Amino acid sequence: MLDKYNREINYLRVSITDRCNLHCVYCRPKEGISLQGHEDILRYEEIIRVVSIAVKMGLIKVRVTGGEPLVRRGCIDFLSQLKKIDGLQDISLTTNGIFLEKCAQNIFDAGVSRINISLDSLNKDKYSKITREGDLDAVLRGIAKAEEVGFSPIKINTVAIKGFNDDEVLDFARLAVDKPFQIRFIELMSVGQPGLDCHKDYLPAKQLLQKISEHYELERIENNHNKSAGPARIFKIKGGRGEIGFINPVSHHFCSTCNRLRLTSDGKLRACLLNEAEIDLKKALRENCSDAELEKLIWDAVLLKPKQHDLICTENILKKCTRNMSEIGG
Ligand code: SAM
Q: Rounded to the nearest whole angstrom, what is the distance from the C-alpha of residue 330 to the centroid of ligand 1?
């Protein structure tokens, strides 16, 4: 699927629920959000239908996310249904890792071999604070289980927050020395109603890179040698087992190579995380649209893709994306 700017769109992120067992302060408020009801969210069979049609149009990759995908009942069966879609080459999952110890093997057996696990601090108290009561030990056990089961790659998503985890950058780098993980530092974006000041707490990735390179010898890996890297700039640490990645949506956007669409938990197809335009697939699905009509709506979304987002670190940054990340799918 080629968009107006000649980008090949072949990747879909699917948020299967806006619910989450954690309330990370930069992601969603703890109280005061109205959660979507059972009827509001897309049924699994509706998602499978959308993906099957999109695959015929050129989709090859799907990432299942949320909210926390593993809190939705039936998630693992859904993953195995996705796996059966002919032509879908790659299925991955993003999770906070809390339930991984219990279900990593089942996820792997369902056909998902690539997993991203969010982890913003290696300190128990800080982890609990940023996630509003998450249990760091549970995540670490989940990561260990994922490694034991054979997930590859295992990517650790760490949102960089000024004054919160910038003092842990070298601890995370050490993790990439000791373990075959890809530690990805993500710049904080102003999405939804975050419980922190995304302007004040934003930390440009280049500062982290600078700090790490003062202690470790880094070798840049080109993305075409590492097809699963996506927009991350990846470095190998000399002598280490893993890699370090930087995802800079704010300081250095990667819109010119963006290949994504997002399916929100309530069935809207969104062409850009940071642009409010959406196409309502749920309405069409529930009015028994034909496959041709669905295909046309998917095209409409592709053609809606803006040349680039305008989320930059300025004073009006907070106006740019009103929906919470958990609904859109991070
Ligand atoms: N519950 C899963 C998890 O924790 O990984 C999946 C959903 S979560 C929304 C997906 C990713 O989005 C996480 O890695 C999270 O850190 C990232 N994220 C959420 N809000 C963000 C923000 N404001 N800026 C940057 N990354 C964010």
A: 5
